[in-house]
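As the next step, I selected for study a record pairing a protein sequence with its backbone structure tokens, which the following lines show:
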Amino acid sequence: MFTTSEREAQRVAHLVLDAPRPAPAIPRKPKGVSKQEWKAQKEILRERGKRLAPGIEERVALREEWRGKAGTPETLEFAVRSARREGALARLHATGAIDAHQLAAAERIATAHAQTVADVAVRTAKLEPRSTGGGPDAASAERIGRVILERQYTAWRGAVAPHAAMLLAIIVDDMGVTVAARRWRLSNRRARGILVAALDRWGRG
């Protein structure tokens, strides 16, 4: 168990200052313990000594896994998970047509679209009180986050308005770029270029 002060110290050290994990202190081998037993015990002590508080441990482990790679660990991890799924955007990422940042932008756009325009979500929000289980501060933070995301989506959709229908068909409905290009009477290259530019525009928003 970690105290509140220990957790906060770890948060600052490892998530803000990006300090390495603490080096566990291993005591001398107790008398009466065989070398084989002590070897196993030392391994357990090392694992316990370098493990951080819940919530901090997972984020530090993610950073360690992706250290040295371009992009944030969260973006890269999302790209790997998404690439495992079948779908138009996953295939584009697998072939290098879009990068990890653009794939993550597509996910955010799809989330914002569902949040903003889905009829069921709107009716539920109006008719049923929602609770995050985290108290009034958590509920307020969630509402603010939703408002920010909806505003970003509205601005993005306005910026890509001439091609919004095609873009949403690809991003939300998982329509292949080739199929979308044919439906909107564009070349594959042109449709792909519009998609890439739109995903980059979300990142700038």
Summary: The chain has two domains: 4-62, 88-204. Confidence is low (pLDDT under 50) at residues 119-139.
